[in-house]
Amino acid sequence: MRMTPVRVGRLRGLVSPELNPAFIQNLLKDPDDLFLKPDAGILKQSGNTRTLRLSAEGKEWFLKHYRFRGWLHSFMGLFRGSRGRKAMAKARMAVQYGIPTPQPLSLLEREKYFMPVESFLLYAFHTGLETLTQIYFRLGHESFLRQGLLAQIGKDLAGIHAKGFYHGDFKWSNILISQESKGIQMLVDLDGAGRMGFMKDGRMAMDLCRFLVDLLEMMESRSPGMEEFLKSYLDARHTSSPDSIRLLSLVEKQVIRKLKEHAKARGHAVALKRGEFLGLMGYGA
């Protein structure tokens, strides 16, 4: 789908033919101001990005702002493209792989000295979907386990990896599910996503690790949910015992490291013992 060049004040970029450029010019004439309004529906404010939910023309929209990260990043953006443009490219790549993800409807960039320093991406907000985190806390631990979601997501992730695609930040808040479904309806925040390439094992392990860290830090108990997720993933991948052992060992190392990082940064007291994954799946320590 070709996008139309557009200029909004000091910002310039692209807009989908689905939207009227005049609508973008009116809605995003001062995107920074949208985050400062008292009633702003801010979803994320800290870090290198911030996100916002807003209403306009009877519809719900999602705005993502990639903040200025320094002149070196901006200079590299001249050659590699801004983070906003790379996010658009990865969303299109995901569709080519059959991975459901929201498609940006508009990209606006702020430039200084001809370099992209900030980007704003506008999406349609998909109502009726919840993150896996929201579902867990809405249902409660026991009811959540009865839904069979963890096993289905393990199977879904195996299918994504089988296509040669990885997410790169497969945490619970990036997995959207509808009330009618038992598995992944949509994946968001594909900034770290891409093709598997020759680092296949490490990238599969990265997705598994990020999911399991959330499971360990949020759920009241790790069993039986952790077993269900891992077993479903490995069964769907049809991996041999040696390959499963190698992958689980790699995932375990990443999980232990990530939990230690979170313990220092956030004060989380969750830990994982070496050999726990292998023992859990019946391979011994």
Give a description of the structure.
- This protein is of the alpha+beta class and 285 residues long.
- The protein has 2 domains: 121 residues, Phosphorylase Kinase, domain 1 (2-Layer Sandwich); 152 residues, Transferase(Phosphotransferase) domain 1 (Transferase(Phosphotransferase), domain 1).
- Helices cover 45% and strands 21% of the residues.
- It contains 11 helices and 12 strands.
- The strands form 3 sheets. A 7-stranded antiparallel sheet has the order 1-2-6-7-5-4-3, sandwiched between helices.
- Helix 7 packs parallel to helix 9 and helix 8 packs across helix 10.
- It is globular and about 60 Å long.
- The mean pLDDT is 90.
What is the compact description of this entry?
This protein has 285 residues and is of the alpha+beta class. The chain contains eleven helices and twelve strands. The radius of gyration is 20 Å and the shape is globular.
What descriptive keywords fit this protein?
three-stranded antiparallel sheet, 2 domains, Transferase(Phosphotransferase), domain 1, 11 helices, alpha+beta, 285 residues
